[in-house]
Amino acid sequence: MAELLVLVSRLVLVLTSCLLVSSYGQTCTWHEAAVPVASVECRHTSSLLTVHYDTAVTCEQDLSGKNLTNAPTVSWRNGHSADIYLLIMIDPDASTPCKPDLRYVIHWAAFVSPSNVTYFLQGSNDLRITDEFISYRGPHPPEGTPPHRYQFFLYRWVPEITLLHPTFLGNDNSSRFHFDYDQFKAVNRLEHLEAFFEFQYSR
Ligand SMILES: *[C@@H]1O[C@H](CO)[C@@H](O)[C@H](O)[C@H]1NC(C)=O
Ligand SMILES: *[C@@H]1O[C@H](CO)[C@@H](O)[C@H](O)[C@H]1NC(C)=O
Ligand SMILES: *[C@@H]1O[C@H](CO)[C@@H](O)[C@H](O)[C@H]1NC(C)=O
């Protein structure tokens, strides 16, 4: 009887889990998919970055089919122009959210600073790139996998720290895979997460 109950509760869990289905019918649930490791809480609107490709993007929007070749414009209304921030964009769901064996893929990393005071007073606060040390590369998940999440994180930089570049800054493209985000945060003392954003994309 107990076994039956366990079986039934498992069935219910599977049926009620959010199904991730790809265009090729590949299926997994978020339950089976690794837990969201660096989760973005889209309800915290005061901490959301504003991301513009050709149009404004909303947090968690599915941008499948859009041309994301060029880096977006990113802005943040709470920035202080005296501060330096580090913007990072990662894919936690490579090669597929069902089996994120390449986690993380790093898509972009740059020092940014809020636009100058004039801009700020005009109500716009685009983040200006001051040093792009990992060039932007648009989403390019394997064809047919369920949508990947693309996550942006903005950290306040502690000026006394010298950035310890991750080892992959050579020319080997494949080394964008397996980016050790936790280690990168630790060695660079990225402790002040200020804002974030996430969209989804599949091919
Ligand atoms: C996407 O945009 C880039 C840059 O504007 C352009 O070079 C490229 O041809 C576009 N790709 C498609 C499939 O439209
Ligand atoms: C500040 O922003 C304004 C508005 O775009 C621009 O005209 C001006 O050149 C900028 N000043 C500096 C120092 O970047
Ligand atoms: C990395 O990728 C770029 C663009 O796809 C390509 O031009 C370049 O040759 C690649 N570099 C290496 C070392 O594979």
UniProtKB/TrEMBL annotation:
Keyword Transcription regulation: no
Coiled coil location: none
Entry keywords, A to Z: Signal
Signal peptide: 1-25
InterPro entries (UniProt xref): PEBP, PEBP-like_sf, PEBP_euk
One Pfam family recorded for the sequence: PBP
Name used for this protein in its record: Phosphatidylethanolamine-binding protein
Species of origin: Pomacea canaliculata (Golden apple snail)
